[in-house]
Design a protein that fits this description.
It contains 16 helices and ten strands. It has 360 residues and is α/β, with parallel strands linked by helices. The chain folds into five domains: 67 residues, 3-Layer(aba) Sandwich (DNA Methylphosphotriester Repair Domain), CATH 3.40.10; 48 residues, Arc Repressor Mutant, subunit A, CATH 1.10.10; 50 residues; 75 residues, Double Stranded RNA Binding Domain (2-Layer Sandwich), CATH 3.30.160.70; 78 residues, Arc Repressor Mutant, subunit A (Orthogonal Bundle), CATH 1.10.10. Helix 4 packs across helix 5 and helix 14 packs across helix 15. The relative contact order is 0.07.
């Protein structure tokens, strides 16, 4: 590593120390000559003079240089975030293996936390409350059982629902269709679709009886149609008729004028995803046109600041391009990585929004 590269890295490390940036914890440690200790970048101690600070790739390297671990941030131990994540992961396994919802008191006792702290911490890491996590896990089990069990009733009880009536109250919300349709892979679901070309390349639009269920962008319409078929493997896909042309025109208008937002469609969306994904997608629709936020900021907005990776995955799972504007989420520093429809399309959409807003 040459001297110039080292200097640049040290500048980055120093900025992380000044900002107490948790994202750099574990990537390096810093020592302070006047105190003889080494710390995590996020340590809350008063910032030392730059001339007294040095950087180390590991705890072992810092200790080999003669420094001892800080008693405040305890860099030689697992971080508080890691410890909390491990506790919540253990509770998730406990919930998954329980036939019925566990009370907050029982979960808090198991984790050694107060009820309030447990509830807040669980939601910040998973994006869901313990009660909602249990319900989501039940729904996942239901999807598996519907494909395995001989009857729908058997699948319902095997999934932990104590009565048919209790289940059917929630079935459409959980599955996006009736249990029988899900069991048949959506065989009784009719989906109209059409492929076309726009300024961003190829697109496919699909619509169920509930609303637009897919807006896919890409290079080749054939691959997008294959993607649609994989999403609805046994649904009846019907080529768009004359009435559907109005929907196509509305979608193209939205792509060409993304600043207009979902209102330009004037059509309902058939949004299918987990409870967490839908929470993320709903938050995406509230990001004003012409602005961007980071994945970390989005995670904070939905009350799950530690769930940045899960938020990024939910953005990547969005099948309604532009209508749910995941193109408005960027990396820290403004980087445009992470768009399933291609970075160039993301840049083009953001440039269009900025230009369209300036022209008004």
């Amino acid at each position: 590593m040459n001297t110039l590269t080292t200097m640049k890295e040290n500048d980055i490390h120093w900025q992380a120390v000044v900002e107490r940036d948790k994202n750099f914890d574990g990537r390096f440690f810093y020592s302070v000559k006047t105190t003889g200790v080494y710390c995590r970048p996020s340590c809350g101690a008063r910032t030392a003079l730059r001339s007294n600070v040095d950087f180390h790739p590991s705890c072992a390297a810092a200790e080999a240089a003669g420094f001892r671990p800080c008693k405040r941030c305890k860099p030689d131990q697992a971080s508080l975030e890691t410890q909390n994540a491990e506790k919540i992961a253990a509770l998730c396994r406990l919930i998954e293996n329980s036939p019925e919802p566990l009370s907050l008191d029982k979960l808090a006792e198991h984790a050694g936390l107060s009820r309030y702290h447990l509830h807040r911490l669980f939601k910040s890491i998973t994006g869901l409350t313990p009660k909602d996590y249990f319900a989501a896990h039940q729904a996942d089990k239901l999807r598996v059982q519907l494909n395995r069990s001989e009857t729908i009733t058997e699948a319902i009880f095997e999934s932990g629902y104590n009565s048919n009536s209790r289940f059917y109250e929630k079935s459409n919300h959980l599955l996006g269709m009736t249990p029988s349709a899900f069991r048949q892979g959506g065989r009784d679901t009719e989906i109209y679709f059409a492929a076309g070309q726009c300024s961003l390349g190829a697109f496919v639009v699909a619509m169920s009886d509930k609303g637009i269920c897919a807006i896919l962008l890409g290079d080749e319409p054939e691959s997008l149609v294959d993607d649609l078929q994989n999403r609805f493997p046994r649904a009846t896909l019907i080529g768009g008729n004359e009435k559907f042309e109005e929907t196509i025109a509305a979608v193209v208008q939205l792509i060409e004028n993304p600043a207009a937002g979902q209102a330009a469609l004037n059509l309902p969306l058939d949004i299918r995803g987990t409870a967490f994904q839908q929470k993320v997608w709903k938050a995406l629709t509230r990001i004003p046109a012409g602005t961007t936020i980071t994945y970390s900021e989005l995670a904070t907005r939905i009350g799950a600041p530690e769930a940045v990776r899960a938020v990024a995955s939910a953005c990547g799972a969005n099948a309604l391009a532009v209508a749910i504007p995941c193109h408005r989420v960027v990396r820290r520093g403004g980087g445009l990585a992470g768009y399933r429809w291609g970075i160039e399309r993301k840049k083009s959409l953001l440039d269009r929004e900025a230009g369209q807003l300036q022209s008004h």
